[in-house]
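Quick one:
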Amino acid sequence: MGVLLEMKGIQKSFYGNEVLHAVNFTLEAGSVHALMGENGAGKSTLMNILIGIHRRDGGTIAIDGQEVEIESPAVAQKMGIAMIHQELSSIVEMSVAENIFLGREPVKYGLIDYRRMYKQTEELLETLHITLDPRTKMGRLRVADQQLVEIAKAVSQNARILIMDEPTSSITDREVANLYEIIRNLKERGTGIVYISHKMDEVYTITDKITILRDGESIATWNTQEATNDMVVKAMVGRELTEQYPRREPQIGEPILELKGLTKKGQFEDISFTLRKGEILGLVGLVGAGRTETMQSLFGLTKAESGEIYIKGEKVTLNKPTDAISHGIAYVTEDRKGEGLVLPMSIAHNTTLPSMKELSNKVFIKSAEEKSRTEQILSELKVKMASPKLAVKNLSGGNQQKVVLAKWMLKEPDIIIFDEPTRGIDVGAKAEIYKLMNEFVAKGKAIIMISSEMP
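Output:
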């Protein structure tokens, strides 16, 4: 259908640190173009320039062959550019229709015309083959359905360029198939889609082209059918990744944790297992099967109605997270922004939050020890950052996830619960995290790992 968007020689610096070096990216109408790269490669920065959050320092942007200046998100919206973020921005107390037409509500006699708004929403959802009630509150919808509402909102704004950031990270296989149908529908309408993902299988399934960014540079662009898995990984990490799942020779020791009949009606029932030192225990099941809820109960975030928990042979009661932490349990949440981090605080302070007791002498923080231990763990996890003093909100999603891992590894617990630890993380970073997990259990510690990713 022809070139819809062309970004040429895009440059951007933050605090004197150049994060984009003359990046090129082209999107054709009616196509899906995958944008891939390691965490911190510059994907988010490039897209934030496209949607008007950041101003570029150099280069040009052209839509339909005409150079444009995208000075703000409002300008981007008028130009037909929309983005569906990995962390959805829905207003949960408002209805589907109210979310779709927020700020653009139809008005009659100076008041919102709800009847017209609901009718327009029904018609819009029908054209996209989305079966949702416009009157339903967003908070009652599954994540996958909230995502579809975000897509409908973008279409209602006449978006011709749609950016999807890790759109399948929190949805089931059946919901992924439904999303693919919506994407194909949008392609037929001539919409150009930028698809950000670390999942190779879906990139090969749904995209037409792949562009790789590495260290702020555009490394390669291929037609998807011409690209192999090895080509993509090598371009992303700058080397051949010989061992994505590092081998381990487990030394299994005595039981460290035992659950007996843990039950909370409607969420999980009669959960029993034993975790031993040196062991990584995988907890699998479909989204909504109760994996996260069970682990939240173990960490004291919610309370089970019945059942027993034993740590090192001793029966314990875990009513709150501080109880779990005092018994040597750490929890790496799947919701890094909502539960795992304090976004306005610095990277360093987020990393040391659970370890304040160990890093202070009851009155003052041991600054030198805090600095050295923080720098060491962040270096081990290869967190890409200009400085640990920067607010953690400025990091890419994958690097934020690494900070969540770092803060608990610094605490040196006996048991770490990992809830989707590699969600939204590139293949190189995944291998690094798996290696760190192996090193952790080699010390006689143990891990419970929830993951929807199968090798």
